[in-house]
């Protein structure tokens, strides 16, 4: 169903009136909820101007807390994706191997790390680094966060790579075989370059997941990323919890929204492009979720 | 080997029971709220469509950790919202965690459902409208039942992700599996491999059968076209 308005007729006079009534009721309900929240906030003195104004008037709250926190978030995310990409590609290709002794262990590892929560891996990495290495305790949270994120996301990327290669039309392999290429050559010269384009949207979406998961390190491992700045800001700017959370959530939303939009822009470009086979993994296939074979994921409506 | 369990100071099964409870309540809640959001996003009222889109885009892009911490530090400790009263910190933390999990995962349910609606042939809705059914009847009697059948697999993935994401509740002191693992790893530092393997195994036991069972269900109920 490409056009959702198929669910209802073009509104006549009565439907129009009814829609207006629904709108009014909806606005009133929404307004009441909002008023209730604002009322409680005013009651607890969270609406006071001095709780919100530092974010606009005082540059130090940005230079001391928010921007360093954001940079730490980006640092952990960038390190994770850079390490997880080759690792994931390796495992993804291993799962496609013709040899059973390569395929099965790789599959087991990937399935195992996808089945357990990323937080468990962070806890484990943190404890293991503390016990077996002499990484200074300042750096340990970063190492633990990146290790946890790499283990989890490498296994997700392995699935993306596998699905990316499987999404290519079989004629590509057939043609390459017909001109006498060997297995390795088919993979390196024919399949991988096309699969990378097909995977790009899904990979960018995975970056969103990584950025979101760095917040775990801030809340539970003491990594000084964006979220953990809430505590410092509320301690220094007069218990402005709501304001601090709102600003930090907004920064996350804007950052991730930009990444998501970029992913769908890339996807659209590939879909419209004439030079590729048009095979593409939908950007949403893996958002935070486990991964399925591309053909069972229903395609979302394109706006 | 498992002698640290004999002392009886760690209730591993109890912790996993809290995880399961978190997952079940949140799953039911996000299924309901996600369906409502999906209905809003395809409704004929532009305002509701706008609200649905805005909600999904904002909440989906916020880290779950931020949502759950904001529920605890913001809603409870600053604004004093306890959700149905009581003063037991544990119980309130549990409720807030469920609230956060519902708010977050409903967006994924909504998106899965919306793509499921796209798989229903146009003729179904057209035929329903030709019979004179209203929007609600078209949606809830004709389109959504078929859409649900085609999105069992994506919804199963949401459920699995939800089960794993319950660990985030450890951030606000809910005594579930990840919180217990953190404590045990601290006090049983000579057995971190064993402790970690045990908790990893627990989650594998929770998620793998769910995936397999629902994978089988999705094949059975899928509409053959």
Automatic annotation (TrEMBL), chain A:
<feature type="transmembrane region" description="Helical">
    <location>
        <begin position="76"/>
        <end position="96"/>
    </location>
</feature>
<feature type="transmembrane region" description="Helical">
    <location>
        <begin position="108"/>
        <end position="130"/>
    </location>
</feature>
<dbReference type="InterPro" id="IPR010065">
    <property type="entry name" value="AA_ABC_transptr_permease_3TM"/>
</dbReference>
<dbReference type="InterPro" id="IPR035906">
    <property type="entry name" value="MetI-like_sf"/>
</dbReference>
<feature type="transmembrane region" description="Helical">
    <location>
        <begin position="242"/>
        <end position="266"/>
    </location>
</feature>
<comment type="similarity">
    <text>Belongs to the binding-protein-dependent transport system permease family.</text>
</comment>
<feature type="domain" description="ABC transmembrane type-1">
    <location>
        <begin position="70"/>
        <end position="260"/>
    </location>
</feature>
<protein>
    <submittedName>
        <fullName>Amino acid ABC transporter permease</fullName>
    </submittedName>
</protein>
<keyword id="KW-0472">Membrane</keyword>
<keyword id="KW-0813">Transport</keyword>
<keyword id="KW-1133">Transmembrane helix</keyword>
<dbReference type="InterPro" id="IPR043429">
    <property type="entry name" value="ArtM/GltK/GlnP/TcyL/YhdX-like"/>
</dbReference>
<feature type="transmembrane region" description="Helical">
    <location>
        <begin position="20"/>
        <end position="38"/>
    </location>
</feature>
<keyword id="KW-0812">Transmembrane</keyword>
<dbReference type="InterPro" id="IPR000515">
    <property type="entry name" value="MetI-like"/>
</dbReference>
<dbReference type="Pfam" id="PF00528">
    <property type="entry name" value="BPD_transp_1"/>
</dbReference>
<feature type="transmembrane region" description="Helical">
    <location>
        <begin position="186"/>
        <end position="211"/>
    </location>
</feature>
<keyword id="KW-1003">Cell membrane</keyword>
<feature type="transmembrane region" description="Helical">
    <location>
        <begin position="142"/>
        <end position="165"/>
    </location>
</feature>
From TrEMBL, chain B:
<feature type="transmembrane region" description="Helical">
    <location>
        <begin position="191"/>
        <end position="217"/>
    </location>
</feature>
<feature type="transmembrane region" description="Helical">
    <location>
        <begin position="130"/>
        <end position="148"/>
    </location>
</feature>
<keyword id="KW-1003">Cell membrane</keyword>
<feature type="transmembrane region" description="Helical">
    <location>
        <begin position="20"/>
        <end position="43"/>
    </location>
</feature>
<protein>
    <submittedName>
        <fullName>Amino acid ABC transporter permease</fullName>
    </submittedName>
</protein>
<keyword id="KW-0813">Transport</keyword>
<keyword id="KW-0472">Membrane</keyword>
<dbReference type="InterPro" id="IPR043429">
    <property type="entry name" value="ArtM/GltK/GlnP/TcyL/YhdX-like"/>
</dbReference>
<keyword id="KW-1133">Transmembrane helix</keyword>
<comment type="similarity">
    <text>Belongs to the binding-protein-dependent transport system permease family. HisMQ subfamily.</text>
</comment>
<dbReference type="InterPro" id="IPR000515">
    <property type="entry name" value="MetI-like"/>
</dbReference>
<feature type="transmembrane region" description="Helical">
    <location>
        <begin position="64"/>
        <end position="86"/>
    </location>
</feature>
<dbReference type="InterPro" id="IPR035906">
    <property type="entry name" value="MetI-like_sf"/>
</dbReference>
<keyword id="KW-0029">Amino-acid transport</keyword>
<dbReference type="InterPro" id="IPR010065">
    <property type="entry name" value="AA_ABC_transptr_permease_3TM"/>
</dbReference>
<feature type="transmembrane region" description="Helical">
    <location>
        <begin position="92"/>
        <end position="110"/>
    </location>
</feature>
<keyword id="KW-0812">Transmembrane</keyword>
<feature type="domain" description="ABC transmembrane type-1">
    <location>
        <begin position="16"/>
        <end position="214"/>
    </location>
</feature>
<dbReference type="Pfam" id="PF00528">
    <property type="entry name" value="BPD_transp_1"/>
</dbReference>
């Amino acid at each position: 169903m490409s056009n959702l308005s198929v669910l209802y007729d073009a509104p006549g006079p009565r439907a129009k009136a009814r829609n207006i009534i629904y709108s009014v009721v909806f606005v009133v309900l929404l307004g009441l909820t909002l008023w209730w929240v604002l009322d409680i906030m005013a009651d607890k003195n969270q609406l006071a101007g001095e709780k919100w104004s530092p974010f606009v008037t005082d540059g130090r709250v940005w230079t001391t807390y928010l921007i360093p926190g954001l940079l730490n978030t980006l640092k952990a995310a960038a390190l994770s994706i850079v390490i997880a990409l080759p690792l994931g590609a390796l495992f993804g290709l291993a799962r496609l191997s013709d040899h059973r002794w390569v395929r099965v262990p790789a599959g087991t590892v990937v399935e195992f790390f996808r089945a357990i929560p990323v937080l468990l891996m962070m806890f484990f990495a943190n404890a293991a680094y503390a016990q077996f290495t002499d990484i200074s305790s300042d750096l340990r949270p970063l190492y633990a966060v990146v290790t946890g994120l790499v283990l989890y996301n490498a296994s997700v990327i392995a699935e993306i790579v596998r699905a990316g290669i499987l999404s290519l039309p079989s004629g590509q392999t057939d043609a390459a075989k017909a001109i006498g290429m060997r297995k390795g050559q088919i993979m390196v010269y024919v399949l991988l370059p096309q699969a990378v384009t097909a995977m790009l949207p899904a990979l960018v979406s995975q970056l969103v997941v990584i950025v979101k998961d760095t917040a775990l390190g801030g809340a539970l491992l003491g990594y000084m990323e964006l979220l953990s700045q809430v505590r410092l800001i509320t301690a220094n700017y007069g218990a402005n919890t709501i304001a601090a959370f709102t600003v930090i959530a907004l920064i996350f939303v804007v950052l991730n929204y930009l990444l998501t939009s970029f992913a769908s822009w890339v996807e659209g470009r590939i879909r419209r492009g004439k030079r590729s086979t048009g095979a593409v993994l939908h950007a949403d296939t893996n958002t935070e979720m486990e991964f399925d074979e591309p053909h069972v994921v229903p395609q979302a409506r394109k706006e | 080997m498992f002698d640290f369990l004999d002392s009886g100071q760690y209730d591993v099964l109890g912790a996993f029971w809290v995880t399961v409870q978190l997952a079940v309540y949140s799953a039911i809640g996000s299924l309901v709220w996600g369906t409502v959001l999906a209905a809003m996003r395809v409704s004929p009222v532009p305002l509701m469509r706008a609200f649905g889109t805005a909600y999904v885009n904002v909440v989906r892009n916020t880290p779950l950790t931020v949502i759950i911490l904001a529920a605890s530090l913001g809603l409870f400790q600053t604004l004093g919202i306890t959700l149905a009263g009581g003063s037991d910190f544990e119980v309130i933390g549990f409720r807030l965690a469920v609230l956060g999990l519902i708010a977050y995962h409903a967006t994924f349910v909504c998106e899965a459902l919306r793509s499921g609606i796209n798989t229903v042939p146009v003729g179904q809705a057209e035929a329903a409208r030709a019979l004179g059914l209203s929007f609600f009847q078209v949606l809830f009697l004709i389109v959504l039942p078929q859409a649900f059948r085609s999105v069992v697999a994506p919804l199963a993935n949401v459920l699995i992700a939800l089960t794993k994401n319950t660990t985030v509740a450890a951030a606000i002191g809910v005594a579930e599996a990840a919180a217990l693992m953190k404590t045990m790893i601290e006090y049983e530092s000579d057995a971190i491999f064993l402790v970690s393997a045990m908790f990893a195994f627990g989650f594998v036991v929770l998620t793998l059968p769910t995936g397999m069972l629902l994978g089988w269900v999705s094949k059975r109920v899928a509409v053959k076209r």
